[in-house]
Amino acid sequence: MSDGHQHTGHERVPSRQRRRFPEISSRAYEHPADRSALVALRKLSGFDTVFKALSGLLPERSLRLLFLSDSVRVSDRQFAHLHDMLLDACYILDLEKVPPMYVTQDPQPTAMCIGLDEPIIVVSTGLVELLDEEEMRAVVGHEVGHALSGHSVYRTILLFLTSLALRVAWIPLGNLAVMAIVTALREWFRKSELSADRAGLLVGQDIQASMRGLMKIAGGNHLHEMNVDAFLEQAEEYESGGDLRDSVLKILNVLPRTHPFTTVRAAELKKWAESRDYQRIMDGHYPRRGADKDTSVSDSFRESAASYASDVKTSKDPLMKLVSDLAGGAGDLGGRVRRGFDGFRSPSAGKDDTPGPDEE
């Protein structure tokens, strides 16, 4: 199918007509918290030099050799349908250099984009077997979005530091220092996953396919047993249900993860797909890469702060609602915290308690 463009080299036209975004900057789809961190790092003097110096310490070369020797490299002769999707994704997001892509034997449905000098994309056989063509297209777009944003550098460092933390666990205080960095990187990476989900939608341009893919990752290949609306209702229940105890448990559950929970990702992506920002990109109004060097760090931090403030204000999570009310000047802190943590007490512990004036 022709879309009126002249194509050269690696460029391929998608199997159905999709919009292309020439010179699109990754800032167009990046989550504000992800974007502010990246802009700040890119503005640091000597940033590139420091990370290139780290390349001698990080196991990037061994990773490349490992995938080359023990995985299948995607090409026009191997996994040709994935190769076409990769070329399409790079064409739509205008990524000039197509990253190498490998399929590795792993029943878990996973994908990643790693590498310091050059990004490489790895997808598991479990993921390839689980998703249909349009769902897989969104995943490939997701990983190309990571490559365009430069996320592969930080992902590689996170993998290295996670491995290092296990090796130095026996050293007093050594593991604490490494884990502090790992925890911060994980928080950033969870936000970067929301950014990459948006890139996947820009490539696939099919919100239903993106939703189906996330549902399958959560519940397996039983699509006839699942429902998008019911799946999104889980995200609503997860956010708003419970008391302060549940809010704390949510934080503890998410800390060791590099990815947000799947229902949360689906809800976030649907909200962005319905936003004016997404529509403007689809209409051809988006920031170009040529303006990246002029991006203001302070503006990016303000956008990030505004995003977090908005998340707190609109959140239905009990802890976030308490924070929002306190920021707004609401009183009765002691009573509200006691009521919020009631779930910690056993039913028998509260039977003989005489309620105070705050608890009636």
How does this structure look, described?
This protein is mostly helical. Helices cover 57% and strands 4% of the residues. The chain has helices spanning 32-43, 47-54, 60-70, 80-92, 125-130, 133-149, 151-167, 174-204, 207-219, 228-240, 244-254, 262-273, 276-282, 297-314, 318-327, 333-340; strands at residues 72-73, 101-104, 111-114, 120-124. Strands 1-2-4-3 form a 4-stranded mixed β-sheet, with helices on both faces. β3 (111-114) and β4 (120-124) form a beta hairpin. α8 (174-204) crosses α12 (262-273). It is globular. The N and C termini lie far apart (69 Å). Residues 1-14, 317-324, 336-341 and 343-360 have low confidence and may be disordered.
What is the residue-mean pLDDT, rounded to a whole number?
Answer: 74
Anisotropy-based shape? globular
Largest sheet: 4 strands, mixed
Q: What is the element string, with H for helices and E for strands? A: HHHEHEEEHHHHHHHHHHHH
